[in-house]
């Protein structure tokens, strides 16, 4: 079963954000999906915007490209800080991460 079928996201647009207050700085997310996550010199992970700049505003989100969905979901599952949140753009419901049902 694909990740999308499992979550019932049905190809809906998803976005991801990181709660830096809980980030341990281990870098797992940046290893899994370097196109989406990056560690800053402050030792915390941030999501990256369309032109690959780090988005450092609290709660900043970035779209999850479909080809990277599995990598992003794996990051959320493996994140030791439980601080990677993947949600639907349409209703902001979390579909992967600590607050997903
Ligand atoms: S996997 Fe989680 S805890 Fe580790 S660097 Fe990424 S956001 Fe931080």
From TrEMBL:
One of its GO terms (molecular function) is electron transfer activity. InterPro entries: 3Fe4S_ferredoxin, ET_Ferredoxin. Keywords: 4Fe-4S, Electron transport, Iron, Iron-sulfur, Metal-binding, Transport. It comes from the Bacteria. Its cofactor is [4Fe-4S] cluster. SUPFAM superfamilies: 4Fe-4S ferredoxins. Ferredoxins are iron-sulfur proteins that transfer electrons in a wide variety of metabolic reactions. This is Ferredoxin.
């Amino acid at each position: 079963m694909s990740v999308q079928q499992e979550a019932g996201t049905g190809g809906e647009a998803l976005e991801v954000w990181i709660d830096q207050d809980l980030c341990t700085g281990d870098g797992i997310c940046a290893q899994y999906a370097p196109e989406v996550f990056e560690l800053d010199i402050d030792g915390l992970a941030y999501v990256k915007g369309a032109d690959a700049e780090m988005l450092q505003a609290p709660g900043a989100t970035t779209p999850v490209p479909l080809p990277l969905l599995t990598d992003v979901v794996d990051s959320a599952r493996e994140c030791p800080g439980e601080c990677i949140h993947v949600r639907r753009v349409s209703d902001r419901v979390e579909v992967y991460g600590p607050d997903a049902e």
